[in-house]
Structures are given as C-alpha cells and as structure tokens.
Amino acid sequence: MDALMQEFFNVSVMARVAPMILRGLLETLLLCAILVPIGLVGGLGTMLLATSRNRFARAFAVVFIDLFRSFPPLVLLIFVYSGLPFAGLRLNPLSAICVAFLLNASSYYGEIYRAGVLSVPHGQIEAGRSTGLSAAQTFVYVTLPQAVRNVLPELLSNTVELVKLTTLASVISAPELLHSADLARSLTYNSSPLVMAALIYLVLLWPVVRLIRRLEHKLGTS
Amino acid sequence: MTSFERFAATFLDTDVALRYAPQILEGVVTTVAIGLAVVVTGLIAGLALAVLRACDLKLVNLVLIQVVDMLRALPPLVIILIIYFGLPSIGIVIPSATVLWMSLSAVLAAFAEEVFWAGIVSTPSGQWMAARSTGLSYFQALRFVVLPQAVRLAIPPLTNRTIAITKNTALGSAIGVNEILGQAMSAEAFSANATPLVMAAVLYVLIFIPLVIASHALERRHAGWRR
Fold first, then answer.
1. CATH of domain B3-226
2. Structure letter (DSSP) for residue B146
3. Total domains present in chain A
4. Which ipTM value was assigned to this complex?
5. Angle B3-B8-B9 (CA atoms, 0-180°, nearest 5)?
C-alpha cells in the first residue's frame, strides 16, 4: 500500500513537477482552442458537401468521411508528421497536428452535422423559403440551429473525444499536458506526474461527460 | 527523374515494400489479434456491467457509474502509460500487448455498458410486466425478453464506438507493441523511405473500411426498422 502511494500519489514529486505540468496544461488548452474550431468548421464544410445537390460533391464527401473514419488518428498524425517530409513538405509539430485533426475531426463532425440536418423536417425549409428567406438564409437561420440542437449530445461527446485525442501530440513530442507529464515521469522515475495529468483530464472532462449524460436523457425522453 | 518517379521512389518503392512486407504483415496479425480480443472482452464486460446495473443495487450502481464516467473522460493514452510505467514499479510486470488489451477493453466496456444500459432502459415496461406475468423470474425476463431487444437497439451506436476504440490499437506503438504502426515506423526509420507508412495506411483502410461501411448499413437498417 505504501509502495502504491509512493509510486502513484507521491505528493512531494507532484509538488516538484507542478510548474512543468501546468505549462503542459496551458499548451493543451491552447491546442484545444485551435483544434476544436478547426474541427467544427471543417465538419460544417464536409456536411455541406455531403448534403449538396451535386452528385460528385456528395460522392467525394462519402469517400472522405469513410476514409478518415477508418484511419486511426495516430496513423494519420504520424503520416503527416514523418511521411510528408519525404515529399519535401516538412511541417512543424503544431501544423502537423492541425492538418491531421482537420482531416480526422471534419469527418466525424461532418457525419454528426449531417444526421442533425437530416433530422430537421423538410416543412421547416419550405416554411423558411416561403417567408422570403433565401436558401442560404434558410439554412443559417432555420435548419442549422435546429440541427445543432438535435445532435448537441453527439457534438459534445465528439468534442470530448477530440480533447482526449490531443494527447496523441505527445507521440510527436509536441508540448502538451501528457507530454510534459511523461517527461516529468522520466525525470523523477515516478508515475505520480502521469496520475496528476490524469486527474487534470478528469477535472476538465468529467463534468462534460456528466452533462452529456443529462442531455442524452433529456432529449431521449422528450 | 521526373517528379512522379521521385514521388514513387519515396512513397511506393517496391523493393522497400517487399523487404518489409513480412515484418508489417506480422504487425497486421498483432493488430487484428489485439483488436478482436478488445472487442470480445470489452463488449462482454460492458454487457455484464449493464446487467449488474439492472440489478439495482444502490451502492454498486453509484460506484459503477463513477468508474464508467471516469473511463469515458480519461484519454486512453494516459491510461495506457500509467499502467505500463506505473505497475512495474510496484512489482507487477505486464507485457505491453497485454497492457494495451486491458486498457482498451476497459474503455470499450465503459462505453458499451452505457449503450447496453440505454437499450435496457428504453425497452417498454410492458415487456417487463408481460414477461414477469408469464411466470418468468426477474433474471429470466432480463435474459430472454429484455436483453435481446436491448442488444438489438445497442448495435448501431456500439458499432461506431467499437470501431473508434479498436483503431486505438495504434496507440500500442507508443509502448513498443509491434502492431502495424509500430512495425511501419521502425521500417521507415531503417529504410529512410516513406513506403512502409503508406503500406500501414493502406492496411488500416483495408481492415477498417469494411467495418465502417457495414456500420452505415446497420444504421440504415435500424432507421428503417424503427419507423
């Protein structure tokens, strides 16, 4: 029991590495602030293609979504980061992460938005158009708000997944929370920094998971 | 050399591909084996947890829900690293492939429990009453009436989640499991050529695209069935 506390909940180790871990936390928050909007906007684009009237755009979107849903995100990241330099395209870790997450997150968010848009009754669009709104106005003011509300739990839960995926950045040594925790672990020969990182992820994401549970329940019964 | 030839030489080099094919195919076997093991253990454990939750024991359920939420909130790579680096220091040494299997199974079990539970809850209460009034015990009603319907409801959302979690076998490369990505990365380093990575990417697509397409088909069938 004592050995367990020493290895996983060593307070003196935690105190020593705290500044390093906090810097990692800031990097992770920054990463999320960049990646979540990229994914949300990319997903919107994918959804527009997937629901467009152009057959080729639709076919492209289907292939795009299925392709990047079958790639493990880590494979995508490694490919972008260490494969593309062979083609003369050397990206720094941050841009590599942005590119890989744009591809991966757009396909997941795109699929969710699409389900949301399809869940809006067609009469809503007809009603919007007949009040004199243009097709684009109808989409922005009538369809999209209802679509987003209908799939809010899925959007949130995918955002949680996206935040969890930022840990992959540690594999290509980009500065983020897990990377600094792992560095601290190798400096102190102790797993407490990793436990500390786990606790921080729990503080960040546990409330969101609970919120998703509540939302799912509410939408399910309504 | 034209630019296409240069491109082919770095990304589609047949010599490199042939040289590292056996190594990467070994990786495929490892990935598929661990993936299948994760799917089987994760889903069975998830179903067992959902049944446990249906027993309605207050204290058990309180703990169960917290643990499930925790596993949903933690990044899988964090779980893998803590088990892999932490346990040996307290005298428990587990091979890296086992660590990967355990961690991903636990994560899948947490998500599966949630989906199975939703299925159990959404089975109309009339089904319960009808089953019990024919003389079935609580567990017989659960086993023969409620669970078959719950599992059917759970299949489409579970397929997506299962695919997403099984893809995480690639995280094994971070702790030295010789799955596809790990093999491809070492082959890439040895050959100074990107062909092994392309092979890995193609193999992952070959393994997972049938599953992704099957999940669309399931969703469509489910949507039709519900209407």
1. 1.10.3720.10
2. I
3. 1
4. 0.89
5. 95
